[in-house]
Design brief:
mainly alpha
């Protein structure tokens, strides 16, 4: 679910009457230049919302934070904290967005906006992992935070979006393993490459990268002279992904050396084939 001001407004049922009065007050007087100390909590909140609408989320984050300072026990102090997290996120200030969201969860764990705070916290990690070349620590943190939303708030409106983002982040980790594996393979470091491709097959088998990982295992094991492993990788590839280009290429490589894609020997791939694909638990 995208983070937007409209989404936030739709969630303010608990503040409906107070916000309606605040909107009327805002429309009834011009206090745009008034010091925050002279405004009510409702008026400060409305100023922060207007700053977001005007494209000034950094100013809005400061304004929302002032509600807590000036009116620490008001309902708008609570609301201002989640809005501060949102404003920081809009400003791509992910560290401060995460801090504000975490403070909301610490202070108001049972309130109606707790699922949204947890979702914002997860997004503060997730929105930084687009580049495969970056440190994957952010991806692991995003996965943990998204899992928290899914497990702690399964009936919330953010659970489905968190599941989709979790799958994408999981795929991202697999893509990183593939990138490193290809790097090693290209430079002839076959054992190191095989370890990376094995990780994808064992730990990220639900991702889109599994067919290529199996094919690369055929390549690397043939290069290492590990014929049984290469044939077993080809057998799994043929069983699950026969219609792919990766199987066609692996089949050509194996048959070109007088081999066939079949389970052979007693290796980790053969065990996977027998236990998972054929149900022969040993």
């Amino acid at each position: 679910m995208p983070v937007s001001l409209d989404n936030i407004r739709r969630r303010t049922t608990g503040y409906g009457a107070a916000m309606a009065l605040a909107l009327l007050a805002a429309c009834g007087g011009d206090y745009a230049g008034a010091p925050l100390d002279d405004l009510s909590a409702e008026q400060i909140y409305q100023r922060g919302e207007r700053q977001i609408e005007q494209g000034n989320p950094d100013d809005a984050a400061y304004t929302f934070g002032e509600i807590e300072r000036l009116y620490p026990y008001s309902e708008f102090a609570q609301r201002g904290l989640i809005m501060q997290a949102y404003a920081y996120h809009r400003d791509a200030d992910y560290e401060n967005s995460r801090a504000s969201a975490q403070r909301f969860l610490d202070f108001y764990p049972a309130e109606q906006d707790a699922p949204y705070a947890a979702y914002l916290l997860a997004l503060s990690y997730y929105d930084q992992i687009d580049d495969i070349g970056r440190d994957q620590g952010l991806t692991f943190q995003a996965l943990q935070a998204l899992r928290a939303v899914i497990e702690n708030y399964p009936d919330s409106e953010y659970a489905r979006s968190s599941i989709l983002k979790f799958d994408l982040a999981f795929d991202h980790l697999a893509a990183k393993e593939m990138e490193i594996g290809r790097y090693y393979l290209k430079r002839g470091h076959y054992a190191a490459a095989a370890n990376r491709f094995r990780t994808v097959v064992e730990d990220f088998q639900t991702t889109i990268h599994t067919p290529e990982a199996l094919h690369r295992l055929v390549e690397t094991y043939l290069s290492l002279g590990l014929v049984d492993e290469a044939q077993s990788a080809g057998a799994i590839l043929g069983h699950n992904y026969r219609s792919t280009e990766w199987y066609e290429s692996s089949y050509a490589q194996l048959t070109g050396q007088g081999l066939s894609p079949e389970v052979s020997g007693d290796n980790w791939l053969a065990s996977i084939y027998r236990q998972v694909l054929r149900g022969e638990w040993l």
